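Please, does this match?
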Amino acid sequence: MGELTAKPLRYLIGLERDPAPDASDIVELGYDATRPPAPAIGCKYVNLRDERNSGDYAPYLPPDDIDDTYGEPAPDPDGAGFWRNLGEQLQRAAGQGFHYVELDNLDTYDVATSLRCFNEVRAHGLKVLVKNPLLVTGEESDLLRHESAVLVVVERGAGNPRSLHELRQDAGRDTMPVRFVAYGDGEAWARHCGRLIAEQGHVDMGVTYSALGEYGSSEDIAVPVAPPAVDAAATVTITTSGDVQIIVNGKPVL
């Protein structure tokens, strides 16, 4: 099991710091965070769009609904600006001491572009939280198969516990951590996801809700349950005296 297994995700991308980080949590902080939230496991938000609407990462794709809502134009991945935007953020996160990043707005692009982004994450010595994979055009399970992918973040409208479990099964990662996050009027959806996780018996799926705006707080709706331990296969050895010894989970069986 990895260090993220069964740990709640404090999805706090609306904040630069967590005022009370807990060692038992994963804490994701926003674009302007400058240091990991020790003693928690820290993750930093990375935006594949132009966070500041700076115009510095041309060429851009045609405007869309995210431009209208957030004022964040989308750099064209066929141009140098897209990769400079990503590289600057990854370099900054690594230099600040983060080991994990989330790439927001994957669904602006396709799976092929997303995998190239994951390669850049790996090149910077980082791991990636996969955001809303079911909204990305292409073979979505390939996103979870990438060696840098370690956890899935899901917002309302981007899937449910069963569909995400099927996705991780398709990727051959049956117990990959999945965290559902919601804010504002998404509380009812979050609680419904929590009930489905319990009813359907999904392991390592958690749900949190932010009552303070768009991810300015984090309340547990469903705490992730660790996958059951897998027993190691028995091994047989012959001792120097010629006796047969059976070892299971590192211990001799009499």
